[in-house]
Design brief:
The complex is a heterodimer of chains A (154) and B (189).
Chain A: H1 2-25, H2 31-40, H3 47-66, H4 77-93, H5 98-107, H6 111-131, H7 137-153
Chain B: H1 5-9, H2 17-31, H3 47-67, H4 72-79, H5 96-118, H6 138-154, H7 158-163, H8 170-188
The chains are: A mainly alpha (154), B mainly alpha (189).
């Protein structure tokens, strides 16, 4: 039960943060848009994005330490790099991620966001369903290595 | 339902033709500040605006960490719906993250209803910059699918990934270093 109340109150905080950004500077708190905006926009108009990201990264470090959240051991780069690239590419192509479409888009009752949320939720669940049954990344690496060795021995 | 943030935020526009003309001006002002283009008609750069953005990011991070969103194992346990059938509902499935979205959307429903109606402009900016598009296109669906695959593989979406960038785990650093070129490429095409 405690997990549910923590999740819900964390969610409320995320909502409050989005409200602060909306009321304060009139912007959508979408992390993919803000991060990609920093990469491609003019520096002057992106200062508020830098400020938001600064708060996000710094706050993340502070609260992880305060709540003593366990760190994650590094997983295979063969999974992390494609996954990161897909997340970056997909969120910008689709104009939003869990925060932009999920938290803010649903709050705005946007049809586009509602569809996007359903699509990425279902796709992610489907992906987990498949990968849970597939052998781990190390297995694929060894298969590729053996295949290359076999190929070049001929 | 035609969506326009402008007509939505000012009930005035529906009352008389003169008022709707002034709404038209506001709409033109927003025209070149559409969502994902990165430019803004009203650059936000005052110290107060930056401070409030910083605060928003900070509170956002607190929420993510408290909710458990920054732990990929928790996210993947939520996405693993097969575990639902491992016993009486919810089985071994961890539905707690649904409460994160639930709690957040309850607040933002209120926020996006009240704030643009309460005032014409934000505290420290010239105008509300809200997406106005409401048509569903291939980019949206394709993007959501691609994002879903990456999210399901790793358990990271952009917010939690950025929030755990500097906590001293190499896992997220690799993820973010791969995410940024992906974002850059999608912006360029």
């Amino acid at each position: 039960m405690e997990a549910y109340s923590e999740a819900a109150s964390g969610g409320v905080l995320i909502g409050v943060a989005s409200w602060i950004l909306l009321a304060g500077v009139g912007r959508i708190a979408g992390v993919s848009s803000i991060t990609s905006g920093v990469l491609t926009s003019k520096r002057q108009s992106s200062l508020w994005r830098w400020a938001f990201l600064f708060g996000l990264v710094g706050g993340g470090a502070l609260f992880t330490w305060l709540f003593a959240i366990p760190k994650v051991e590094a997983r295979s780069a063969f999974m992390l790099i494609p996954a990161g690239f897909l997340v970056g590419f997909g969120t910008v192509l689709g104009s939003g991620c869990t925060s932009g479409h999920g938290v803010c888009g649903l709050g705005r009752r946007s049809r586009r966001s509602a569809l996007a949320v359903v699509v990425f939720m279902v796709t992610a669940m489907f992906t987990v369903l498949i990968t849970a049954h597939l052998p781990p990344a190390e297995w694929w690496v060894s298969v590729i290595e053996e295949g290359l060795q076999w190929f070049f021995r001929r | 339902m035609v969506f326009s943030s402008v007509s939505r935020r000012s009930g005035r526009g529906r009352r008389s033709s003169r008022d709707s003309a002034s709404v038209g001006v506001a709409q033109a002002e927003l025209e070149d500040s559409t969502f994902h283009d990165g430019s803004a008609t009203a650059p936000v750069r005052s110290a107060a605006a930056l401070l409030v953005s910083l605060l928003a990011g900070f509170v956002f991070a607190a929420g993510l960490v408290m909710a458990g969103m920054t732990q990929p194992s928790k996210v993947l346990a939520f996405l693993d719906v097969k575990e639902m059938f491992a016993g009486p509902f919810p089985g071994l499935w961890d539905p707690s993250l649904a409460f994160v979205m639930g709690g957040a959307v309850m607040v933002t429903l209120l926020a996006f209803f009240a704030t643009p109606r309460a005032s014409v402009r934000p505290w420290f900016g010239r105008s509300f910059v809200l997406p106005r598009r409401d048509s569903i296109d291939l980019r949206l669906v394709l993007g959501a699918i691609i994002f879903g695959v990456g999210w399901g593989l790793s358990g990271y979406c952009p917010g939690p990934a950025m929030a755990t960038l500097l906590i001293g785990q190499i896992d997220t650093v690799i993820f973010v270093l791969a995410m940024l070129p992906g974002m850059w490429l999608a912006r360029k095409i």
